[in-house]
């Protein structure tokens, strides 16, 4: 690991505002330290946010406020998450391993970087790691790569499970920017690669995620998080689906479908969901929604299988959501 | 020298150390403290051989920077037994023949202790999922699972 300066931030430091801009934020370190060991990230200085006051989960009538420093495990097992937001509980517990979830924080989970093999391999070209060098994945081995929202510069996916559930729930992210809190709707946090794949998200240097706001509606009756992967546990998603439904007399009153493993951000299209409000909650309609949601999907060789896989997964997840086990 | 001060307890003993910030907990345990019960398998969070307990929770020590553990209570496999007595978890691993070469065993045992501390296992699937963060190259999984189940039931 390349040597670096280390600062442990205190609440008083925050008011100075300057410390974060020139440093890389360290939370649990389960992604950042790994990338530093590979030489993919080589920060000159780390700002450890572990002692900042964002390690609580607060309940209110507007929903649940998840502190950025609460661990993924403490979030998943929180009583209100289990009872009101079971899709989030299921998505978090489908991720990584018990040890990693015990250390990984909510803020770090949101900003974890892609698992593209070429991004990790510093001997290979990668526009995300080194802009302008090219993308080794497009004509390479791309089994885990994106089929939607890709660009000629990058076909990486966002690897988080938690984020797929947060997208479905339409959570909001609280960010401390230059001393002010701004609120970002979840679908505007991450971005598509376009011609700037080095940017995973829309935050600015120095921005600090403080909380994730869950809305009051948690879809606790009809939900599913379906993760399809190469082994049953301790593996990233090939594709995943977070499905939330509200059903009234057999008709869809609300429907949310977010996809993981298929794009540079959790994939969700509100316009498509709205088209199905009032329609029958049937397999035929779920199939039609799946078709519309993945319209334009394109494989790159070894990931072509994801197109039919995700279509089937959407329908299965929605049917499971009708009758959650 | 570029060092930072950090305080924690290690197997019950208070420690204060000035350390280079890029030192991982795993390297500190093995190379500075000579506590070599904690193993280095992959060094990238992918095998669980380096699992130790921080405040009662299992974590991969290869991905923790020691400097970030100020105030933590760290327990390694050397700290789970008392004097000459094995811990109940260690005893059950022996009784159930839950290892072959033993390389993964310290991490496996730390994971079972954390599993009992968390107390969230409601099915065989959940138990297997909890333990899936500890790979075993000898594939002693059948008896590891049996031992883990007994440890959880008897905790
Ligand atoms: C072997 C392995 C398997 C895994 N499997 C899965 C899986 O199946 N599914 C899954 O979803 N994840 C998986 N993960 C990833 C894991 O979930 C992430 O590593 C973890 O969530 C990152 O959280 P952290 O607190 O450790 O972040 P860190 O590593 O500390 O930080 C990650 C990034 O976020 C930034 N950051 C952190 N906190 C903040 C904040 N509050 N504000 C602004 N920026 C911040 C950091 O600067 C850094 O860029 C796996 C990881 C490993 C090592
Ligand atoms: S897909 Fe993106 S991250 Fe992977 S090699 Fe191409 S540019 Fe790099
Ligand atoms: S050595 Fe830490 S997980 Fe493998
Ligand atoms: S007993 Fe040999 S690695 Fe598990």
From TrEMBL, chain A:
Entry-linked SUPFAM superfamilies: CO dehydrogenase flavoprotein C-terminal domain-like (SSF55447), FAD-binding/transporter-associated domain-like (SSF56176)
GO molecular function: FAD binding; oxidoreductase activity
InterPro entries xrefs: CO_DH_flav_C, CO_DH_flav_C_dom_sf, Diverse_Substr_Oxidored, FAD-bd_PCMH, FAD-bd_PCMH-like_sf, FAD-bd_PCMH_sub1, FAD-bd_PCMH_sub2, Mopterin_DH_FAD-bd
Domain FAD-binding PCMH-type, chain residue ranges per copy: 1-219
Keyword entries, A-Z: FAD, Flavoprotein
Gene3D superfamilies attached to this UniProt entry: 3.30.465.10, CO dehydrogenase flavoprotein, C-terminal domain, Uridine Diphospho-n-acetylenolpyruvylglucosamine Reductase, domain 2
Keyword Flavoprotein: yes
Pfam hit, one: FAD_binding_5
Keyword Cytoplasm: no
PANTHER family reported for this sequence: OXIDOREDUCTASE, XANTHINE DEHYDROGENASE SUBUNIT C-RELATED
Protein name as it appears in the record: Xanthine dehydrogenase YagS FAD-binding subunit
Phylogenetic lineage: Bacteria, Pseudomonadati, Bacteroidota, Flavobacteriia, Flavobacteriales
TrEMBL record, chain B:
Gene Ontology terms for molecular function: 2 iron, 2 sulfur cluster binding; metal ion binding; oxidoreductase activity, acting on the aldehyde or oxo group of donors
Entry keywords, A to Z: 2Fe-2S, Iron, Iron-sulfur, Metal-binding, Oxidoreductase
Entries under PANTHER family matching the protein: OXIDOREDUCTASE WITH IRON-SULFUR SUBUNIT (PTHR45331:SF2), OXIDOREDUCTASE, IRON-SULPHUR BINDING SUBUNIT-RELATED-RELATED (PTHR45331)
Name of the protein described by the UniProt record: Xanthine dehydrogenase YagT iron-sulfur-binding subunit
UniProt keyword Cell wall biogenesis/degradation present: no
Highest taxon of the lineage: Bacteria
Residue intervals of the 2Fe-2S ferredoxin-type domain: 4-80
Any Pfam family the entry gives: Fer2
